Amino acid sequence: MKCKNAVNELSNYLDGELDEELKMTIQAHLGKCHHCHAVFDTTRKTIDLYCDGKLFPLPEDVRARLHEALRRRAQRV
Amino acid sequence: MSAGQVGQGAPMSEFQAATLAGDESVLVSEAKAGNYAAFEELVNRYEKKIYRLGMNITGSPEDAEDVLQDTFLKAFEHLAEFREDSRFYTWIVRIAVNEALMKLRKRRSSKEVPFEETEDQDGEVLVRDYADWKPNPEQTLAREELEQILRNAIQSLPPGFRTVFYLRDVEGLSTEETAQLLNLSIGAVKARLFRGRLRLREELSKVLKRG
Q1: N or C: which end of chain A has fewer CB within 10 A?
Q2: Which of residues 15-54 of A touch B (CB under 8 A)?
Q3: For residues B42 and B88, is the Cβ–Cβ distance under 8 A?
Q4: Residue A48 sits in a domain of what CATH number?
Q5: Tens of pLDDT along A7-50?
Q6: How far away is chain A from the Cα of B8, in angstroms, using its nearest Cα?
Q7: What is the C-alpha separation between B90 and B114, in angstroms, rounded?
Q8: Could you tell me if B21 and B96 lie in one domain?
């Protein structure tokens, strides 16, 4: 398998959407190719880093304005 | 006793019990019946996620605040139309995504690539940097420093890429749900996710790679 073909399947591989044969072929390639292994591994790390939910916390003043706007709207009902 | 508080020895209302048990359908029913405290409890549950969605898609604190307010105001006004055949959160995410995309479309003077015209749509994907990273960036960098790096990287993506990346990889929506929400084909969602992931990785590699 060529590196280009392996990288083209990166997303499907990470999402577990490949059939068993192609998955094994890619795993064999990753075992031999340090470059592709690094790309696959660091792409998975990229996703993991964004999944911890700590980016962009809700500022307290923004939250207060939201609840004030909702209370004002509710009082009009 | 005010709504949302549980008094010692006092029998719990259905709303209070639902709040403690995390029973969303009861909260929605109570909110539909005019119980504002029940609606506020739903807001409390999801306000952080909706703000994060706004920040991730629009990249602007002002727009994210508008998205947050407009989403919950619309949810309040249209709650009677929520048919409860999906989760409440799925319903408000749909509202929030539409609000965020409208913000992007209004930026006519912006230099950002419009959502519908995401670059690299059909071109070949080239990996320019095969470098491995230093181990455990979460442990080797200060938390604030790493968060700033992650914020800068996602903001550097075109809106069409970062929206798909956010919905699929952070929110955990399926490809089909994402396609439906964004009015895209399954193939377009997959292509944007693939390119978005690789570009995000390359942005992070500039800072996190070894050597």
Answers
A1: C
A2: 34-36, 38-39, 41-43, 45-47, 49-51, 53-54
A3: yes
A4: 1.10.10
A5: 999 999 999 999 999 999 999 999 999 999 999 999 999 999 99
A6: 27
A7: 25
A8: yes
Q: Which domain holds residue A34?
A: 3-75
CA B77 vs CA A65, A74, B169: distances in Å: 18, 9, 30
CATH number (domain holding residue B153): 1.10.10.10
Which residue in the set A8, A42, A54 is minimally distant from B132, CB to CB? A42
Whichever domain contains B81, its CATH number is 1.10.1740.10
Residue A54 pLDDT > 80: no
Tally of structural domains, chain A: 1
pLDDT band of residue B12 (cuts 50, 70, 90) is: low
Distance from B127 to chain A by nearest Cα, in Å? 8
Cβ atoms < 10 Å from Cβ of A46:
27
**Which of B72, B127, B204 is nearest residue A39 as measured by Cβ atoms?**
B127
User: Is B2 domain-assigned?
Assistant: no
Domain containing residue B165: 125-208
Split at pLDDT 50, 70, 90, the class of B211 is low
Q: Which of B40-44, B121-125, B163-167, B196-200 has the lowest mean pLDDT?
A: B121-125
